[in-house]
Amino acid sequence: MIDISPSVMQFLLAFIVAAPLLGAVAALLPAPPGLKGRSPEQAVLRHGVTVTGVILAAAIALALGFDHDAPSRFQATTDISWIPALDVRIHLGVDGISLPLLVMTALLFFLCALYSYFKLPAGPSPKAFVALLLVLESGTLATFAVLDLLLFFLAFEMVLIPMYFLIARWGGAQRQAAAWKFILYTLLGSVVMLLGLLLIGVTADTFDMVALASDNGRELSHTTQLLAVLSIGLGLAVKTPMWPLHSWLPDAHTAAPTVGSVLLAGVLLKMGTYGFVRILLPVTPDGMATFAPYLGAFAAVGIVYGSLACLALARKGNKGDLKRLIAYSSVGHMGFVLLGIASMTPTGVNGALFANIAHGLITGLLFFLVGALKDRYGTADLDTLAGATGAALYGRAPRLGALLAFAAVASLGLPGLAGFWGEMLALFGAFDPAEGLSRAAFLTYTAVGAFGTLLTAAYLLVVVRRVCMGDPKAGPALAVADVQRYEFAAWTPLVALTVLAGLWPALLLGLTDPAVQQLLAGGNS
Amino acid sequence: MTALPALAADTPSLVQSVDWLAIAPVVITAVVGVAVLVADLFVTERHKPVLGWISVAGLAAATATLLPLRAGDRSTFCLTADPEACSYVADHFTVVVQFLVLAGALLTALLSVTAVRDTRMPAGEYWFLLLSSAAGAALLPASRDLATLIVALEVASLPAFALVGMRRGDRLSSEAALKFFLSSVTATAVSLMGVSFVYAVTGSLHLTQVADRLEDVPGQLDTLAMAGVALTLVGFAFKTAAVPFHFWVPDTYVGAPLPIAGYLSVIGKAVGFTGLILVTVIAFPAYSQVWGPAVAVLAALTMTLGNAAAVRQSADRPNSAVRLLAWSSVGQAGYLLVPIAAAAYSERDQIGSTLAYALMYAAVNLGAFAVAALVARTKPQHRISDYRGLYAEHPLAALSLAFFLLCLAGLPPGIIGLFAKVTVFQSAVDAGLGWLAVLMAINVVIALYYYLRWTALLFRAPEGAEGARARTKAPWPVAAAIVATAVTAVVLSGAPQLVLRVASGSLFTQ
């Protein structure tokens, strides 16, 4: 949109990836004179807001300078040799697929830093909190920006340690077990993924994603592709998470602090689906075509399973934890994303990418809201919250109640909000899958998925009824503070973007579609 | 070198030329060792620490002499009749391993300076034994005939037995030394028998000639050759602490003075795997179908058992920290063996991955032992739970240890550990050893559990009253060792190429 010179763009992208790391180191050092603030705690939290804010500004500048007429071309590219012995290159670049994810990641991290500035989760020193948050940001941004398989793996691994400590140190009940489950599960997945990446790299003699993608797997034999898809897909499926590999997710979400849940759902899960689109679809199309029906089946089961689990949690007397409920709803939503990818059609993959962004915005918002509820009530247990008639949030804290209702209907895919387009396109894609894929199987998945949307609507409406409605006079005499100013600041951007993406989907689809077309065709389009 | 004249009996001249520069790293170490032993007789008790500094200087000088050798094109003690067959070759492989051994010994020496003084170990003997062992370990990678190889192996090991038993009046120490000695001697004897079989078949001790002659062994000698190959490997597998030759490790490490435990975990291992590499890929490539699967199975068993045992260490038992490091070093030895096994299935340059991994492992493992030495000054029980809250007490030491442990686990921010593992994985994938790669992947996850558990402990709030623990100052040699290893690990994480270059291209000239 604006003309920014290529070298500045190049710098912006490199800056976005590297600056959080420098910021993390700086956070550990004592504050320089003049920036001491009211207390060391306040100074370091402010430092976190500043750094993530600068990164967000850089990401927005990058988006503005991005040539929107050629979103299928990698822009702002850097390509320098790092480890010649392993043929690892620092190859960075963005296209229409990664740009929205980059901007969303930068935004969510900024909002999380802002939220923590006013409401630091209980735990040890905020210094370490900010440093870990920034390392996490660097790792996630790098995942979306790198174009080298081994670098992708490095970025993928980089998020593990910070997230482990965020959960284990600043989390709630059962945090140790949840943190262990998170890191061991994901590490097992990603090491197996490494084997697949190495198999591709060793066979094709390059780790460069661009070269591999434009080659579209012609160098790789069918057996190699099958093995590669199996191992890489396993690693990505754990991260996404795909049913039945999801069991780490509810625990991690329930135990994590609010910002941890927001980032886990909003950003970390996207790394898995992004890997499917960026690596498996273009590099190993044959292998992917073989496994797509199975992936679709798991996705469809995941949709229904997630919704049913949520329904069970939402029922009265089941002691359902709201955070756990939203975690399970993520399993369902990621099922739609995987179904779109499994269809291997431009429609489906575009839908998947759209649903990715929408899920990041909406579930991020939901976790913020539930975190706020938990802070106010001291529990996220639905039965305790709702009491006999319902928590009556509309009566006690109307704005909070309205926001929760908004996020819930956005999550169930109300047309006109962001949640709608992605899931609809994913179902469309599955309705008419790519050539060579079994139509009958995918029609079944479409039907199952469509049924899943009904279940999703059901449990979200149950949640709204139990949390937002009810008799404000009944239940515990508890003064519930309505939405605070900082909470508005942290949540409004998410609400606005949810509405914007819902009303103007072309904004996102215009970016992703050309890139997806080229990705699926391999350098031939 | 001793066996050569007899071999070359039918040649006109027996006098071989000697390239003194090529053998300088070994000779300097040995000479300084003898000098220290002699000097011990004339130095008064008060001045004993001087011996330590002489040894440190000697090791530094020996390390420095590797600089002119870095071209890796020298060889000496060649047969006058066949200049291609040399007993001492200073190629890239040799120089890299010698650097690992000598720099590792230098770090051990730095840690020992305070340990010798504090525990009143006999200084002269200690330094002499350490330097002799280092000289043997430095000779090993350069030796290219089976006799020299065995001699070097013994020169490296025999002093180590005595070093393990150095803690006078400590029953655990003597028991450890005896255990180590008996099992090691048995292994060497088995190895020697293997060597004699191989000699019987080929009529040569020079590795290159052995390799040539093993290509076409007469039918009736084939079994003998195979048995020779298998038996020779045993001695080296023992030194690498590969399962099932690993049982001596935990007790020996616990019984030995801490710097010596670190020395054994790094240089002792280096001795084992360089010997293993030399006999497998240089001497016995013709029998790769015998040793390839054997080494692969050894690797699989070693990493699995080592990691399983390390996970089981409970944090509160005395010596649990040293035991954990001992078992983790067994697990790491398994990773080191993977590229050697891979070399049997593809090409011998795969072993570069072993070297690259060993360099990374040497730096971070010695670093971990250095921090352990620091912690042991105030809490001599070596319990893992002693490390709780180390960050509050020694922030830099705690951060360094965390970094070392994450390097060993192979997770960012320990980037060098990650990429060293990637090269090992790559060699396995390249050689088509998929099952071994998958097993190693599972092991990496198991290992992460105990490394990260320890790491997390460092940053917990310290137990007990805050005022009770006075901040102790670290003695500067120990601090220097921690700083040196930490800086190395951090620099390598930024520029992994410095180490990983070893993993690409050929290391051998012959």
Features:
heterodimer, A: 525 residues, mainly alpha, two-stranded antiparallel ribbon, 21 helices, B: 510 residues, two-stranded antiparallel sheet, 20 helices
- Low-pLDDT stretches of chain A: none
The rounded Rg of chain A comes to 22 Å
Helical content of chain B, roughly?
over 70%
Strand order of the largest sheet of chain B: 1-2
Q: How much is the radius of gyration of chain B in Å? A: 22 Å
In short:
The complex is a heterodimer of chains A (525) and B (510). Chain A has helices spanning 6-28, 40-65, 98-118, 126-145, 149-158, 160-170, 175-204, 209-215, 222-239, 248-255, 258-283, 285-314, 322-343, 346-377, 382-386, 393-396, 398-411, 418-431, 439-468, 485-503, 506-521; strands at residues 75-83, 88-94.
Overview of the molecule:
- The complex is a heterodimer of chains A (525) and B (510).
- Chain A has helices at residues 6-28, 40-65, 98-118, 126-145, 149-158, 160-170, 175-204, 209-215, 222-239, 248-255, 258-283, 285-314, 322-343, 346-377, 382-386, 393-396, 398-411, 418-431, 439-468, 485-503, 506-521; strands spanning 75-83, 88-94.
- Chain A is mostly helical.
- Chain A has a domain at 284-525.
- In chain A, strands 1-2 form a two-stranded antiparallel ribbon.
- In chain A, helix 4 packs antiparallel against helix 6 (160-170) and helix 12 (285-314) runs antiparallel to helix 13 (322-343).
- Chain B is an all-alpha fold and 510 residues long.
- Chain B has one domain.
- Chain B is 71% helix and 2% strand.
- Chain B has a two-stranded antiparallel sheet.
- In chain B, a hairpin with a 7-residue loop joins strand 1 (74-78) and strand 2 (86-90).
- In chain B, helix 3 packs parallel to helix 5.
- The chains are: A mainly alpha (525), B mainly alpha (510).
- Chains A and B meet through helix 4, helix 5, helix 6 and helix 7 of A and helix 17 and helix 18 of B.
